[in-house]
Amino acid sequence: MRSGSPGPHAYAVLLGLKRFDLRSLLKDVKRGLPYRAVERLSLNLALPDELMPTFVWIPRRTLNRRKQTGRLLPDESDRVLRASRLFGRALELFDGSRDAAVEWLMQPQPAFGGTTAFELAGTELGAREVERLIDRLEHGVYS
Fold it and tell me: How far is the C-alpha of 19 from the C-alpha of 13, rounded, in Å?
């Protein structure tokens, strides 16, 4: 933080969060992120409203209830943070181009057997596979 860089958790800015250190993020997830984090991620992704529940693996009715209460549960917060992390990685891969990042997340990938990164993002296992592919692509290993 002394250098002015938000560090390895910069993707939290995609949720409108202002603290990027690990301790603060863990505390926020345990407490439950504010619902506005979902709205901010949706805005940054420019996704149609009907696709957001799929990306964060939270049913639409549940999201509607969370909107009324104003706060997500810890496990829901973790999923939203994970989706933000993957979107952040895709943005890095495409030099900050939101359109290219979203298009890549939504395109079937041969490396995933024709599944999209968007579909895999809902589980930690799937998210790790997406990150592995992004790492390979960043280093010129096309598979």
Answer: 8
Counting every residue written for the chain, the total comes to: 143
Share of the chain above pLDDT 90, in %: 73
Rounded Cα distance, 143 and 138, in Å: 12
Residues 6+ apart with CB under 8 A from 90: 101, 102, 104, 105, 117, 134
Please, where are the H alpha helices in 32-97?
36-45, 52-56, 60-69, 74-93
120 versus 7: which is more confidently predicted? 120
pLDDT grade for 72, boundaries at 50, 70 and 90: very high
* Residues in Cβ contact with 135 at an 8 Å cutoff, skipping those fewer than 6 apart: none
Contact of 76 with 62, CB cutoff 8 Å: yes
